[in-house]
What does this fold into?
Amino acid sequence: MAEPLPVTSVWLTCQQPARDQRRGRYVRATSSHPGKMLPHLAAHAISSYTAPGDLVLDPMCGSGTTLVEAMHLGRHGLGIDIEPRFTALADANVALAASQGAPGTAQVLTGDATVLLDLVPASTVGRVGLVLTSPPYGRGTHGLVQTTDTGVRKRNHLYGDRESGNLAYGGWSRLLDGFAAILAASHHLLRPGGIVVIACRPVRRHRDDLIDLPGELLAVARAVGLVPVQRCVAMLAAVRDGRIVHRASMFGMLSVRRSRDEGLPVHLIAHEDVLVLRQGDPPGRRRPAITS
It folds into this structure.
């Protein structure tokens, strides 16, 4: 009988600032990726839903956070990203983890994950224990703050060329269609009972237009045959003496203040939704009847 899944619904993934989670564990150029997953979030998911020696897949691996944390936990990682500059960055982070004695291994591939089955080795089919990933929220996201003579601006907050096929540039309909293709392919790669974990959050496209991206992705996942198991919260803030201590950027705080000045009841983002799903039957396939 399979081990029961943990029931903890709040993941305390940001009790240290993100930069401290990465310091010494990732190459410095990692900061150039605009939408990095928190290392502690990745590590919590990997340790909760896999065992040493398992294969962990991130079909939108970016700078390689999922792969690095899998390696340090004795798992094996496989990552795909559409942008060569980010797969080079992921390769550098994998090499650093190996040099630090991480017991696991990882492989990075460059390509469009919407055709995932054309990219991964055939031996991967039916072997993946965990698919762990996070979608882009648009062409720009976190980034870094830089002070210049002319004021304060963001840098390293944009994905690459919109012509490359990056889902970050395609609008929400294309993002959902692309993510559906990725999840459908992931379903074939999972071993029986394998798990998919998606970290995401609602997105405000315009000041008064809030998109329930977690809800949309959950519907997409169910449509390709994945079975919901849990919906958790991964903290993007610290908890100290029962109080939430936000880690929002200056740009995030300014955006909230502007919205409130305009009469919109916006708050600082303090968590990401985490969708946990299990491999089920693909649409159109029935389970065989159980006979005595």
